[in-house]
Amino acid sequence: MPGLSVTIITLNEEANILRTLESVKPFADEIVVVDSMSSDNTVAICREFGCKVYLREFDGYGPQKQFAADQASSNWIFSIDADEVATHELQQEIRAMFTGHDDPGTPGLRHPAYRVPRTLHFMGRTLRHSGAGNEFLVRLFDRTRGGFTMAAVHESIKVEGSAGTLKGYLIHYSYKDITHHLDKINSYTTLAAEENFSKGRSYPKPWVALKFPGSFITFYILKRGFLDGYPGFVWSLLAAGYGCLKVAKTIELFQKRK
């Protein structure tokens, strides 16, 4: 029976981390936490829970998550963010895969990786649309067959072979409020702009003006954010702002570093 290591990267997640740890406990053989020098009680909570904790300066989401996977004892990795929760359905599904993988009646481990559906809890509502209500992300994988991309932000997992899809959901509690969301947008767009600059990816200035309305229409109309009510409108607004700021910051970097 193969083992399963759960990996998490953290920075000042004391408000979220215990909820996340409790949600993966039913199927984790071990939990590996890589912390980016938190100033709150995140590390103490993880150690008390029994996690393997490593301290490491943050150098991008992809490198940080790959480092966490490299510290695991098992080849099978389940990567979860510190502000996500595995639902009861997902817990049972993963546990069945690893305890009964030789039983024809269980899902088994027929692929080197598995996508997990994720939905966002935002402004007191679980979004079902808006481009955030039904994402499918590879989170369970065999590290001997692949790993994380080295992207500084919006990293992904690439494996050799096909990826299966699980039914159980992750719930993402990413933002405490609008101010917290704006803080994350500022941080993420800075990282994204740095990555664009390093790859020589530039944009014409008129694209800034076009990006916002185009993105808003995509999230609110095409991805049916209007069906998520007021939270769907605010999410679509901020998501469009993210895209616009990412382009504007990239242009600014090219101007500063010419």
Describe the protein in words:
With 258 residues, the protein is an alpha/beta fold. It folds into 2 domains: 4-172, Spore Coat Polysaccharide Biosynthesis Protein SpsA, Chain A (Alpha-Beta Complex); 178-256, no CATH class. Helices cover 40% and strands 22% of the residues. It is built from 7 helices and 12 strands. The strands form 2 sheets. Strands 1, 2, 3, 4, 5, 6, 7, 8, 11 and 12 form a 10-stranded mixed β-sheet that branches. Strand 1, helix 1 and strand 2 form a beta-alpha-beta unit. Helix 5 (178-198) packs parallel to helix 7 (229-256) and helix 6 runs antiparallel to helix 7 (229-256). The radius of gyration is 19 Å and the shape is globular. 37% of the residues are buried.
Write down how many β-strands occur, each being a DSSP E stretch of 2 or more residues.
12
DSSP strand (E) fraction?
A: 15-25%
Q: Tell me, briefly, the overall form.
A: globular
- Helical coverage, percent range: 40-55%
